[in-house]
Amino acid sequence: MKAVIFRTHGGPEVLEYVADFGEPALGPKDVLVRVRACALNHLDLFVRQGIPTLRLPLPHILGSDIAGEIAKVGDDVADLEVDERVVVNPGLTCGECEYCVRGEDPLCVDYKILGEHVHGGYAEYVVVPAKNVARLPTDFSFESAAAAPLTFGTAWRLLVTKAHVRPGEEVLILGAGSGVSTAAIQIAKLAGCTVFTTSSSEEKLKKAKAIGADVLVNYKAVPWSKAVWELTGKRGVDVVLDHVGAATFKDSLRSLRKGGRLVMPGATSGPIAELDIRYLYWRQLTVMGSTMSTQKEFEDVMKLVFMGRLKPVVDKVFPLQEARKAHEYLERGEQFGKVVLRVD
């Protein structure tokens, strides 16, 4: 099958398009998906570069966010048929540990993510558990569908399940242009919150306003934490969503009101941050980490996506053969929303 692989870790130049990669084996509870679109995530960049604690057998195929058609079904799959259009939940679980039993899928003791721990969607075909697919409406594009699962699932879990955002609260979303941010802005707005967001680009801030952001902060003009503090009357916001990490952690805490909540799904600027514990307990702040979503959260948020209440933002589409260019584009940080690979 056609695929983009890497045989060694490194920069975008290690990505290699091949036409003769072996088709994945189908298990009895699996489906083989003919991939039509696969969205990029920063996770793809980290895996390609090499994560010290992740030892992958090489060559490897990246890609977590997948939409396509069912090409084959396993012997034990009774409720799905060949040619059905589907989108994939990229979180893989054992289904048997204490966390899976109580519905906390991302805490599974053997949790894996498509494209990170196992072969993903930068390919003509991918095998996934049948339980991980959701049917795709006939009028919904593969590119838009692929732009949704990881980012919208992550943002939904962060804001709705973890932070318990409520109507009337003020929510700050850092980095308006990222996939998680474009999802979080819409989710917070749908929940009835006043949405603050930041960027160094006026163009990105205008686009953020178009999808629901209320208060726009250009951090090239003024330090964003100072601006948020002043704009809230020196109170601070109720919730901050920070996926940037080391570079923003301190200011994220300072932007919170007393008793505020900081939720973090990533650390694109680095994993090690400094914390004054006295500030944390005196202001009674809560810091929560989260990754991915449960199957129920995936289904809940995708239902709203299919209804048009939440809209995936696709910035640019590249053919699979140009995965290297797509990685270079994502690394430059020029996108607003998702970068997607089209698989013909």
Commentary on this structure:
Helix 4 (149-162) crosses helix 5. The protein contains eleven helices and 17 strands. The mean pLDDT is 97. With 344 residues, the chain is α/β, with parallel strands linked by helices. It has helices spanning 42-49, 98-101, 142-146, 149-162, 179-190, 202-210, 224-231, 249-254, 277-282, 295-307, 323-332; strands spanning 3-6, 15-18, 30-39, 65-73, 85-88, 91-92, 112-113, 125-129, 133-135, 170-173, 194-199, 215-218, 237-241, 256-264, 286-289, 314-319, 338-342. The chain is globular. Strands 3, 4, 5, 8, 9, 16 and 17 form a seven-stranded mixed sheet that branches. A six-stranded parallel sheet has the order 12-11-10-13-14-15, sandwiched between helices. It folds into two domains: 3-147 and 312-342, Quinone Oxidoreductase, Chain A, domain 1, CATH 3.90.180; 152-289, Rossmann fold.
Overall SS class: alpha/beta
* Whole-number mean pLDDT: 97
Fraction of residues in helix: 25-40%
Named at the architecture level, the CATH assignment of the largest domain is Alpha-Beta Complex
Care to count the β-strands? 17
Order of helices and strands: EEEHEEEHEEEHHEHEHEHEHEHEHEHE
CATH top level assignment of the largest domain: Alpha Beta
Shape: globular
The helix tally amounts to 11
Number of domains: 2
Q: Describe the biggest sheet?
A: 7 strands, mixed
Features:
about 350 residues, alpha/beta, Quinone Oxidoreductase, Chain A, domain 1, Rossmann fold, seven-stranded mixed β-sheet, 11 helices, 17 strands
